[in-house]
Write a structure and sequence with these properties.
The protein is an alpha+beta fold. 32% of the residues lie in helices and 23% in strands. Helix 2 crosses helix 5 and helix 3 runs antiparallel to helix 4.
């Protein structure tokens, strides 16, 4: 089922030619679905500042994870066999796990959490859940627009659980016509899995092509073996 297009935003985001030489491009606006989608379509994403002000970001050192460069160690391959993975079975649980306030460097406020749950209900946010029997032990979620998947956050309660979710995400995107997996900033963790910096300019050059293709999650039949 296609995602539902929300009401257009009432805010105007600056064009890329007006952006400062800084990761933080703009502040303010709101977290309505139309606003968030308009931002992603321009290469921006929301994240609050330390004082709670809503910021819109496009890192100068923008990073992606090329599908063909995903690194799967032997231990990760064993973990992939150990756990069970589902898609969109418990998005609320995954987002709650990522938003756990006890996590170090947590940035997902209740307002951010609610905004992405709402986007999930409209069909724009997708989650990958990792299970150990009936226990949710990890996962990730992100925004899918056309062939672009913007990874927002991941969490784990068992070793390698978030990495297992990432392996399944990359597999789905690569097999169903995805174009680009945006990982925002490159962390040592993501670099170890194959992430790399391409820079803001290169990201913006690739963005229109990614947005133009069909959504890999549209008409996804989970009864046919996914994941």
């Amino acid at each position: 089922m296609p995602a539902i297009e929300p009401e257009p935003t009432r805010f105007r985001f600056p064009s890329a030619s007006e952006w400062p030489e800084d990761d933080l491009v703009a502040i303010g606006a709101d977290l309505e679905p139309g606003t968030i989608l308009a931002a992603y379509r321009r290469g921006l994403f929301p994240m609050p500042l330390q004082d709670g002000t809503l910021g819109w970001w496009s890192p100068l050192d923008r990073a992606i994870l090329p599908f063909s460069e995903l690194r799967i160690s032997r231990s990760l391959a064993r973990s992939c066999r150990r756990f069970t993975v589902s898609v969109d079975a418990d998005a609320n649980g995954v987002i709650e796990g990522c938003a756990d306030p006890s996590r170090p460097h947590g940035w997902i406020t209740p307002a951010m959490r609610d905004a992405y749950v709402r986007l999930h209900r409209l069909g724009w946010v997708h989650s990958f859940e990792v299970w150990d029997d009936d226990e949710l032990v990890g996962g990730l979620y992100g925004v899918a627009i056309g062939g672009l998947f913007c990874g927002e956050s991941m969490f784990h309660r068992s070793r390698d659980a978030s990495k297992v979710a990432l392996v399944h995400l990359v597999s789905l995107l690569s097999e169903r016509g995805g174009v680009m997996l945006d990982i925002q900033w490159l962390t040592p963790h993501l670099e170890s899995l194959g992430g790399k910096v391409i820079g803001r300019d290169a990201y913006l050059e690739r963005l229109p092509q990614a947005l133009a293709v069909a959504d890999p999650f549209e008409d996804l039949d989970l009864d046919e073996g996914w994941p």
